[in-house]
Write a structure and sequence with these properties.
Length: 146
C-alpha cells in the first residue's frame, strides 16, 4: 500500500508537467463544449429563429443557400442536433483515452468548418485552431494512463 502511494506521489511531483496539468486543456475544452451545448439548448428554447442570419456572410454560395434551405426549414431540430454534437464532443474529451482522440478530431474539424461561415469566423478559428492543435498534441502524446 505504501509503495503505491509513494509511486502515485512521484508521478504527480516528477519533473515536467504533472498528469493533472497535462490534461487540463482537454478538460477545459471538453467543459467549454458542454457549456456551448447548453447555450444552444437555451437558444432553441427561447427562439430558434436566432440562427436565421448565421450564414449570411458564408464564403461560398452553397453555405448561404444551404443554410436557408436546410437549416432554417427546421431550425429547432438543427439547433438541437448542434447541441447534441457539442455535448458528444465535450463528453469524448472528458472521458479521455481513445475517446479523446475522436473528441479532438471533432473539435478541430468543427472549427475548420466554422470558417466556411465568413471571414469574421477566421478571427476566432485561427487562434482557436492553434490552441486546439497544441492542446491535442500535448494530450495525445502523453504516456498512456494506468
Amino acid at each position: 500500500m505504501r509503495n503505491s502511494q509513494s509511486r502515485a506521489r512521484s508521478n504527480l511531483s516528477g519533473p515536467g508537467t504533472t498528469p493533472a496539468r497535462r490534461h487540463l486543456g482537454r478538460e477545459v475544452v471538453g467543459g467549454f463544449f458542454l457549456t456551448m451545448g447548453g447555450v444552444h439548448l437555451g437558444l432553441v428554447s427561447a427562439d430558434a429563429e436566432v440562427y436565421r442570419h448565421f450564414a449570411d456572410h458564408g464564403l461560398l454560395p452553397f453555405v448561404r443557400d444551404g443554410w436557408q434551405r436546410v437549416v432554417m426549414a427546421e431550425p429547432a431540430v438543427w439547433g438541437l442536433l448542434l447541441m447534441v454534437g457539442e455535448l458528444i464532443l465535450g463528453i469524448l474529451l472528458l472521458i479521455g483515452g481513445r475517446a479523446a482522440r475522436w473528441g479532438w478530431a471533432g473539435v478541430i474539424g468543427f472549427h475548420v468548418l466554422l470558417m466556411l461561415f465568413g471571414w469574421g469566423f477566421w478571427l476566432w478559428s485561427i487562434p482557436a485552431l492553434g490552441l486546439l492543435l497544441l492542446l491535442a498534441r500535448r494530450d495525445l502524446t502523453d504516456e498512456p494512463e494506468p
